[in-house]
């Protein structure tokens, strides 16, 4: 990234309201532009990078000597062992091809990071913040908003980077909720319902659930009725509360 002011803003957002003595983990350190900015902002920093040549470059930079540089893959890194039960936060310009699975893994951890300040493709950020009834709203929106409060910070054009990507990039800050946004009685059924509702987006909610779930038609229709949801709705019209009510109704059957 070539935009120094954007780097400083990412570091500020990442460290804002961080718990006392929280450790910072940078995922995808690259050439070290954000790494240096985080150090200058006072982060107690570990930076992971998968590319061995970039790792050697980072370890050879005297201005990054205060950071722990680790060669690791963000998809398989043992976050829990590294954190050791201490509070931690995440910052990074995530590799766009693996950003979503990395973020989902982090937010689903039992003792995951308190906050993530990350750069992702704009269309992924749009899905994080999407509201019911919009084309971007889907199971990813529900998963992120269930566990995290989402703040879209700013968007950067391709010219802010070298080499230029083909897409715009957006910085988002995901802050862990003290409690999930909703409290379904059976989380396993809740997530089955969420995935089922979006499995066949062109079909009605009732038909999509019947195709995706191992529940019979009458059970699904009764649950929809008791949840005050029309079987003709599309899944993308339901908010988190709707999904929780429907899951609870199915759990009672």
Features:
alpha/beta, Helicase, Ruva Protein, domain 3, 2 domains, 7-stranded mixed beta sheet, 11 helices
Notes on the protein architecture:
It is a single chain. The protein is an alpha/beta fold. It has two domains: 173 residues, Vaccinia Virus protein VP39 (Rossmann fold), CATH 3.40.50; 66 residues, rRNA adenine dimethylase, C-terminal domain (Helicase, Ruva Protein, domain 3, Orthogonal Bundle). It is built from eleven helices and seven strands. It has a seven-stranded mixed β-sheet, with helices on both faces. Helix 8 crosses helix 9, helix 8 crosses helix 11 and helix 10 packs across helix 11. It starts with a helix and ends with a helix. The model has no long low-confidence stretch (mean pLDDT 96).
**SSE order, one letter for each helix or strand:** HEHEHEHEHEHHEEHHHH
Number of separate domains: 2
Q: What does the average pLDDT come to?
A: 96
| Rg value | 20 Å
Strand pairing plus helix content: what structural class?
Answer: alpha/beta
Instruction: Count every helix, treating DSSP H or I runs of 4 or more residues as helices.
Output: 11
Distance between the termini: 54 Å
Proportion of strand residues: 15-25%
CATH architecture classification of the largest domain: 3-Layer(aba) Sandwich
Shape: elongated
Read across the widest sheet, the strand sequence of neighbours is 3-2-1-4-5-7-6
Unreliably modeled segments: none
The number of strands is: 7
How is the main sheet built? 7 strands, mixed
Q: What is the CATH top level name of the largest domain?
A: Alpha Beta
Q: What is the fold-level CATH name, i.e. the topology of the largest domain?
A: Rossmann fold
CATH superfamily caption of the largest domain: Vaccinia Virus protein VP39
Query: What portion of residues is helical?
Result: 40-55%
């Amino acid at each position: 990234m070539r935009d120094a002011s954007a780097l400083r803003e990412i570091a500020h957002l990442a460290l804002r309201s961080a718990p006392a003595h929280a450790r910072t983990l940078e995922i995808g350190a690259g050439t070290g532009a954000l790494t240096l900015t985080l150090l200058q902002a006072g982060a107690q920093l570990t930076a992971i990078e998968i590319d061995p040549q970039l790792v050697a470059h980072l370890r050879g930079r005297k201005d990054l000597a205060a950071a722990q540089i680790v060669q690791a893959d963000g998809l398989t890194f043992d976050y829990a062992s590294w954190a050791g039960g201490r509070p931690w936060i995440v910052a990074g310009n995530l590799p766009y091809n693996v950003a979503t699975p990395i973020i989902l893994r982090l937010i689903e951890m039992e003792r995951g990071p308190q906050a993530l300040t990350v750069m992702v493709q704009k269309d992924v950020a749009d899905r994080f913040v999407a509201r019911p009834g919009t084309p971007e709203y889907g199971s990813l929106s529900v998963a992120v908003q269930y566990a995290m409060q989402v703040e879209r910070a700013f968007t950067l054009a391709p010219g802010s980077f070298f080499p230029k990507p083909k897409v715009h990039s957006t910085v988002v800050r995901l802050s862990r909720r003290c409690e999930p946004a909703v409290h379904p009685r059976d989380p396993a059924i809740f997530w089955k319902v969420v995935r089922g509702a979006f499995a066949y987006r062109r079909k009605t909610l009732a038909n999509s659930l019947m195709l995706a779930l191992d529940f019979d038609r009458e059970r699904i229709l009764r649950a929809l009725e008791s949840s005050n949801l029309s079987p003709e709705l599309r899944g993308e019209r339901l908010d988190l509360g709707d999904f929780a009510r429907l899951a609870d109704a199915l759990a009672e059957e």
